[in-house]
Amino acid sequence: MQWSWRRLFVEIQTDAAPVKNLLGNERGAALLTALMIMVLMLIVGLAASRTTDTELLVARNEKEIAMEFYDAEAGLSQAMETTGSWMSDAFLGDEVTAEAVLEVASADAEHLATVRIQPIQNADIATATARALPLQTHTSPPPPGSGFGLNKFEVRRYSFTAEKGVTRLQAGVWKIFNR
Fold first, then answer.
1. What ranges in the chain are assigned the alpha helix state H?
2. pLDDT band for position 50 (cuts 50, 70, 90)
3. Of 20, 36, 59, 167, which has the highest C-beta tally within 10 A?
4. How does DSSP classify residue 27?
């Protein structure tokens, strides 16, 4: 077999695929499909990761709010049980305007809540609204069925407001006193 320019030209011409054949060729379609599926899976994975992060933040916030509520509730209970720490002559008059603020701590000295104690008293609606208290008299007879005689005892009403973070709990408490 002898080498010639003409033969080389014919071989190059017959080996070269026409442009028409290249466009109709399906070679590489599997690679393109696999790449598209991988990109789609990447997008779904990133969306799932973002959703997981958001859910973790929501769960953490719910836990913090629940802990604040429990701390405020514990502070409220502790302040109600320890009247000796706040009950003074300033709270015993008929028209009392005293206010006590207690910083309540747990047994391990962790701050539970700030508790504000105020007497509930007959005040104008603006004052009651500003202090977030109901309109009631500070002193009254004991409730029926309480076992305390109307002639010997009287009830004094107090408001306990416990705050911890964004949580605020309020409880109305009445205490029996001798007349």
1. 5-15, 19-24, 29-81, 125-131
2. very high
3. 167
4. T
Name the pairing type of β-strands 167-178 and 139-140.
Answer: unpaired
* The pTM of the whole model exceeds 0.70: no
b/e string for 129-168 if b means 16 or more Cβ within 10 A?
Answer: eebebeeeebbeebeeeeebeeeeebbbbbbbbbbbeebe
Q: Domain coordinates of the chain in residue numbers?
A: 1-179
Given a cut of 70, whether residue 134 has pLDDT beyond it is: no
3-state secondary structure of 171: strand
Q: Are 117 and 169 in contact (CB under 8 A)?
A: no
Tokens 């409220």 belong to which residue?
A: 76
Q: Compute how many other C-beta atoms are within 10 angstroms of the C-beta atom of residue 120.
A: 21
HEC per residue, 46-93:
HHHHHHHHHHHHHHHHHHHHHHHHHHHHHHHHHHHHCHHHCCCHHHCC
- Residue bearing tokens 């779904």: 44
φ, ψ of residue 100 to 5 degrees: the values are -120, 140
Give me the residue label for tokens 């026409």. Answer: 18
In angstroms, rounded to a whole number, what is the distance separating the alpha carbons of residues 44 and 138?
63
The tally of CA atoms less than 13 A away on the side-chain side of residue 39 is 6
